[in-house]
Amino acid sequence: MSISAKVQQAALTLLDQYHHKQNYTLEDRLMPTDLDEAYLIQREFQSHVSEEQGAIAGYKLAYTTTSLQESVGVSDPVLGIMLEDNIRHSPSRLKASDFLQLALECEVGVRLGSDLSPGGAPYDRGAVSEAVESLMPAFEVVDIRRTQGVHPMIGFITGVSANIFNAGVVLGTPVTNWRELDLASAYGSMTINEKIVGDGHGADVMGHPLEPLAWLANKLAEQGFGLSAGMVVITGSIVTPKVVKPGDTASISIEGLGSANLEVV
Fold first, then answer.
1. How many other CB atoms are found less than 10 A from the CB of residue 113?
2. For the domain that residue 89 is a member of, what is the CATH number?
3. What contacts 4, CB < 8 A, 6 or more positions away?
4. What is the pLDDT of residues 147-182, one digit of tens each?
5. CA quadruple 201, 70, 8, 100: dihedral positive or negative?
6. Which residues are registered as beta bridge partners of 51?
7. Cβ distance 97 to 103 under 8 Å?
8. Radius of gyration, alpha carbons of the chain
9. For 32-55, how does the pLDDT look when each residue is reduced to its tens digit (9 = 90+)?
10. CA quadruple 170, 174, 175, 176: dihedral, nearest 10
11. How many domains is the chain partitioned into structurally?
12. DSSP code of 84?
């Protein structure tokens, strides 16, 4: 089986599992041999989903902490694709039955005001900061479809192929004077039903919330892609995934960036 045929078949397998609200799994012959192939499967998979959920509107980052990377034997974050119809705004309402296992994370969201083209790479934090229009608190919406009992690396690379379980984002009000803030020390927290379920600081994400943006711009450039003005990027978990169910209300707050709220029905 050629690589292109393998990538296409793996993507269609994930698409079928997506539509049937199943955990993601790939048989041995379709398992990506490395991260590069996993990204090819991810993009092909998302190209099919985008026919229903709109064009690429941004990206997510995951595995932005050393401990998570070490748990699966990698040394870099990974990226996922966000689609237009899944960019939501606070206050929002999520229907639990639309997901297999709905979970939420607290992150710093970025909206770009100018392009970060492949030709501009390599980027550093200072360079990508110039392209940032606004920041805001962001719920990452996650649909956990992890198959239990598999080797951690198998689960990891399958997850990358399956777009790191991203199901969109709920954004708070944009903040344009964010350059006045100390983002590394900014405190963030999440409450569910008015009880704090997790907290952290901006520095928990690669030392600063905009470091992941620089990594993303460089990684996409390697793949021949860029970031466009208007795109949204969520930069990695300040609060790790928390499962929610119908009847739950959730709120996130990040110092200097405000809050966002949603309910699950």
1. 13
2. 3.90.850.10
3. none
4. 999 999 999 999 999 999 999 999 999 999 999 999
5. negative
6. none
7. no
8. 17
9. 999 999 999 999 999 999 999 999
10. 140
11. 1
12. G
